[in-house]
Amino acid sequence: MPKTLYLIDGHAQIFRAYHAIRSLSSPITQEPTNATFGFVGMLLKLYREYTPDYIVMTLDVSGDRGTFRSELDADYKANRDAPPEDMAPQVDRIKEICELMGIPILAEPGYEADDVIATVCRAMAAHDDVNVRIVSRDKDLQQLLGERVVLFDIHKDEVIDVAALEETKGIKPEHVIDMLALMGDTADNIPGVQGVGPKTAAKWIAEYGSIEGLLDNLDALTKKQREKVEAARDRLDLNRELVTLKDDVPVEFDLDESAATPLDYASLEPMFKQLGFHRHLRDLEEITGETAAQAASTPKPQAEQSDALDSSDASDSFGGLFDTVETTSNIEDRRSNIHDYPCITTIDELNDVVDDVRQAGIVAVDTETDSLRPVESNLCGMCLAWPVDEGEVKAVYVPTLSPEPSKHLDAKTVIDVLRPALEDDAIIKVGHNLKFDLNVLRHAGLHLRMPTPPSAFAKASADETRKPSPFFDTLIASFLIDAIRSSHKLDDLALALLGHEMIPIKELLGTGKKQITFDKVPLDQATAYAAEDADVTLRLRDQFTSKLKVMGLDALFDDLEMPLVEVLAQMEYHGITVDSAELDRQNEAMDQRITELRREIIDTAKVDFNPDS
């Protein structure tokens, strides 16, 4: 059975992805990813649904004005604007991903990617056991169609072969060049016969065989058609030269080197996570049959491990307000700073925690629940973290609901022991989306209150030192510092700012019908996951505190944003009171007014019609 070479028209596919998906960026590096995301999706579909035997991508490397065609015609593509600024870095990312996938990239200065494709097609004539699918719908490439060469629109799963060309346009591949020369190409700034599009051009070439045949039969055209062809006559030879693809480009192509290799989850996972391609990671799992845990258990040489996020790390170029991000190139090391967190299961241990928190004067608080609705959830446990030495953090998990209730304290006991410390206004409470935790704890019987500031934005006197808020929400701090960041999730911030990959919740709870609630998670797994949340939150607070001050946002954060956290939490917790009788009265009054207005409109129009239309 013949094998298939998939020949990807790189820039055509990249531009298609760029314009199909807008305003997408990495939650980790903040670099634009719309074109990269769409292009990678196309590649994954190719591997998943078509299982290529060989695969190659071609790229333009000389720009619109740097090829031999510009020497033939100074106006060739001179009408084109410069590519969007956010395109070039995405092309570089795509090249990196192709390298990770083992996809060779062919390009040659002075020529266009279409010429490279034509050259590869010519070389493939010697391999009669391999068919070629050009992944593109570019009309210029129709001149390359043959018995074993077709165009393939992977997005629509459509194949254009010789038969389809004849059926739709009535011409053969050898006629395409003359058709293109007649119709011209506004995108490439090639003027053709005025008013002649693909249908008319194809009809004339099908009828007369060539441009020369058409010129010999101008009398068969209408007067206007004849005049337009005559006006463009001197241009047609140049047009034909411009649209003819070169098939002798001095590019190195080796079919064996283009053999498709199985995708490697471990190699691609770091890049996909860095770019925020979580959906593509699921597709990659489906294609490779591997999960992150399975990939991590397979040892790889150190050189391989460090290649994936090499010197092209986009955080250097796209860091924005977070341009001091410290990242590591080794995904296997990203959980190296996970501590062996203790699980607090006795009153003595919990009292020691309270003493430590009081001494530190600050604690990160995170709650684990069996529901995402705080006022309806049961408290499964509390995660606490506090600084112990400069740069060091101690984090613990205090379970209250688990599959092993006899091994730990109950919720009431935990709340009673922690209450004096957590309700102490002198101790700073740190959280990520504190509003949620405030309501979970309130529902469990513990109320973290924030004292009302004397006056928001009140200027401190010369001898008065401004005090920070007793609350610190890292979610809100992140938004204030970089509002355009595409994600402020704790996992994404940890990877972006701390170079640390957190344990995903789905590893504990699962997904779909088999998903469990947190109270069913074994204690050892729950402890590692939960304590890590508080640990990371406290570390992020250290970074955000200095950034807020440098940016002059600390007063806004402390005096307005943080007091609002408790206000909004109370609103969500208590809800609002609705007078249903008053709503009914207002509804009746509005219905009456609508009827009056409808009557006035009809009377003014003096005709009977439906105003609602």
Short description:
With 613 residues, the protein is α/β, with parallel strands linked by helices. Helices cover 45% and strands 10% of the residues. Strands 3-2-1-4-5-6 form a 6-stranded mixed beta sheet.
Could you list some keywords that capture this structure?
613 residues, alpha/beta, 6-stranded mixed sheet, 5-stranded mixed sheet, 25 helices, 11 strands, 10% strand, elongated
Measured as a percent range, the helix fraction is: 40-55%
Strand order of the largest sheet: 3-2-1-4-5-6
How does the major sheet shape up? Answer: 6 strands, mixed
Strand segment tally: 11
Which shape, going by the Cα principal axes? Answer: elongated
Low-confidence stretches: 299-338, 454-463
Tally of alpha and pi helices: 25
Mean pLDDT, as a whole number?
Answer: 87
Q: End-to-end distance, in Å? A: 62 Å
How would you name the oligomeric state of the polypeptide chains in this document?
single chain
Give the structural class. alpha/beta
Radius of gyration: 33 Å
The percent range for strand residues is 5-15%
